[in-house]
Amino acid sequence: MTTRQAIVTGLGCLCGAGRSVDASMATLYAGRRAPRPPKRFAVDLDEGYPVFEIDSDLDEEWEGLARADGFAGLALPRRVSRTSRLALLAASEACRQARVDTERLRSLRVGVCMGTTVGCTLNNEPFYRAWREGEAPDLEPVEQFLDNNPASMLARALGARGPAVTLANACSSGTDAVGMAKAWVESGRCDVAIAGGSDELSRVTYLGFISLMIASREPCLPFDRRRAGLNLGEGAGALIVETRESASARGARPLARVLGYGCAADAHHPTAPHPEGKGLRRAIAAALKQADRRADQVDFLNAHGTATPDNDRVEGRVAADVFRPAIPVVSTKAYTGHTLGAAGAIEAVFAIRALTDQRIPATAGFGEADPECRIEPTSRAIPLEAKVGISTSLAFGGHNSALVLERG
Amino acid sequence: MVFVSDTAVSILGIGAVTALGEGIEALRAGLAGTHRPRIEIESVALPDSEIRLPVYRAGTEGLSRFASKRELRRLDAFSRMALLAAFLAREDAAIEWPDPSRIAVVFGSGYGPLGQTFAFQDSMIDDGDKCASPACFATSVHNVLASQVSIAMRIEGPCQTIAAFGQTAAAVLSTAQGLLERDEADYVLAGVGEEYTPVVGYCVARRARDREGSPLQPFLLETCSYAPGEGYVVFLLGRETSEGRCGKIERVSMGAWEPGGVPTGLDALFLAANGDRDRAEDYRRAIPTGVPCAAYAPLYGSMPTGTAFDAAIAAISIADAKLYAPPDAATGSGGLAVVEREADLPAGARIGCLSCDGDDRFSLAILSR
To answer: Is there a contact between B171 and A165 if contact means CB atoms under 8 Å apart?
Structure first.
């Protein structure tokens, strides 16, 4: 049994709800949301499907990054993708809160573990179209793809000298990245791990989810009887995970502890969850076992809650069976959209803030309970007396992950 | 400051699908020089010329031995490679398949399922935004291979997919070590590989216009002889107490370069050098003087994840107590101590598999008896 504890000392986040953790939490607690059709790309569809897009090129934040205190010498990539921008901006916010600057990062054993979907996929449409048409396109988009693997890019930019691993477990990648960082820190393989997830909105994934008929034409309604699918989003979440000793050595305040992580496969279907949530149950059990906590000691559940009929039905049933009755459940997808590889990390950030704020937001969009889901998520922001929270993710391929987080 | 996973894990079985054929015996035959890789010459049109590019191709005909046509009907080519390698690893290990929740899958690739990524874009271009193919989209996500293997082999434990270019193999192996160390699984299928598509051929040709038709010669470090390959290798790993027929993975290091990153005292160093001249200086800097070196990319092709294939070759070498001469040993050593002829390996031999990945990053997996 390890004696090292994986402590979280810094949080960073950009998403459709806000361009910082504080801004995002303010949006969540206020219950505001404003999905709309994508602006950054055009599509030829008869109907619009709303998304949660960050309404900015992020130029201002990007230019400010290299001038920020403690970030002198930041090695910004020459060719930078939007996914990379999001990742680096979220990581730098987390670093600032954790009081780690680039000089300190270079002096420690620092690993980087990031989840993504778009960020590790060569899906540059203009390049591919030109190649198909025999135009011998320039390789700039390919070079950009090679330069922008999220974990490698972050390690390079921040001067982190440990492992740089990008996880590509589809929609659970961000959760898995935090779990991997926990393992690195507890095993003593790293002093500090920068963990998170990042994904930009892309025309390819937008059309992909529409083709699967799981995107909604309306703002999404997690766990609601009328739910008709998900809204996509974009963003990044980042956490500084380190040992308690490492944090206290520089006076960083522990925000939370990553108590447990578990993941398990459904072994059932490439895109649909197991109807009884077989893998999700095992992932939760594994995370609780690692955390040395019982299910009835969990004070709230941050659900994946995509608002697709299958996901919410399965997740609701599992939650109803596993956790205590009336456990507060929230889905924040109705504020951020589904940010794919970033989702688990963004929601880990939100869950930690719920623990430190002792408050969870309303599940925007939820109005009518669905008896098939067997749970009712929060319908308004509520105060909590919470010590332990759990955050779950379900991914394409039948991959399920869970993180158990403890305050302070 | 190199990340080190030093919990030794046993290699219980290996499945390899490469241009040499299917299974570990095909790889062994290639090492012994009795079998040649399947190399196709592809003509790639560039703006002002046409390049003849050697491409290493892998087949998956043997998959029908393990799965029915019905089970395979929707599997894309890359998933087939991974699934076949996984079945071969299980067959090679010849172990009783335990509780499915105690088996994990950790897979990785540098580029992911390119074939399906482009197939989905084809459907967008050919059929329009309204009719893009859901089947192609669902199989274009990186974790489709791990997912298909978990479904086909009824594996219900942890399931991870890693995409870290040249560091992928080391990341997969160290993640597998961690799962076994923390008792989160009793066995791990750890797999790595790449898929070739004509877009890869175009990119290679475009980046290396002067490589015209020449074979892959990794020891000519300053010469570009990159010849894209494809294939998949899967290791069935267990805790060190298990019966390891193919030796063990002793430690895995990865991260930024630092002096001493490659320990002295290795009996051989297998380089993931693959005809990419941009890595020449990195390899020269990383290799300790006098350590016998080999590079086997001429057997399986150039891939960012070549270290996984080298690790399979290291396991064979350890099992056979023999160091096989790499195919192009005679073409020039680039100043390195290249293994020029077959040699015996001592009992307790340790072989390092080194990958230099640019940006001062490297990885090393050490295998031993």
So the answer is: yes
**Lookup result for tokens 């954790």:** A98
Domain enclosing residue B49, as ranges: 3-368
Measured between beta carbons, the chain B residues lying within 8 angstroms of A338 are none
- Pairwise CB contact (< 8 Å): A122 & B144: no
Q: Judge whether A338 lies within some domain.
A: yes
Tokens of A284: 């939760």
pLDDT tens digits, one per residue of A191-241: 999 999 999 999 999 999 999 999 999 999 999 999 999 999 999 999 999
CA distance A382 to chain B (A): 34
Q: Which chain B positions have a beta carbon within 8 Å of A187's beta carbon?
A: 178, 181
3-state class (DSSP) for residue A24: helix
CA pair distance B294, B328, nearest whole angstrom: 9
User: What is the chain A residue with the closest CA to B254?
Assistant: A163
Are residue A206 and residue A267 in the same domain, yes or no? no
* Per-residue confidence (pLDDT) for residue A64, from 0 to 100: 86
**Dihedral of the CA atoms A29, A35, A40, A43 (nearest 10)?**
160
Residue A295 CB coordination number (10 Å)? 15
A402 beta partners: A262, A392
Catalytic residues of A, by residue number, are 171, 304, 338
**Mean of the pLDDT values across residues A163-174?**
97
Closest partner residue to B120 (CB to CB) among A204, A269, A279 is A204
Mean pLDDT on A283-302: 98
Last residue of a domain, one of A202, A227, A255: A255
Q: What is the CATH number of the domain that holds B85?
A: 3.40.47.10
Distance in Å, alpha carbon of A287 to nearest chain B alpha carbon: 11
Among A200, A222, A255, the domain-final residue is A255
Measured between alpha carbons, how far is A85 from A92 in angstroms, rounded to an integer? 11
Question: How many folded domains does chain A comprise?
Answer: 2
SS3 content of chain B, % helix, strand, coil (to 5): 35, 25, 40
Q: Three-state DSSP class for B58?
A: coil
Alpha carbon distances (Å) from A271 to A209, B141, B204: 11, 11, 33
ipTM of the complex: 0.97
- What DSSP character marks residue B331? G
- Which chain B residues contact residue A207 at CB under 8 A? 124, 129, 132, 137
Using the beta-carbon criterion (under 8 Å), do A176 and B160 form an inter-chain contact?
yes
Structure tokens that stand for B169 in this block? 């193999």
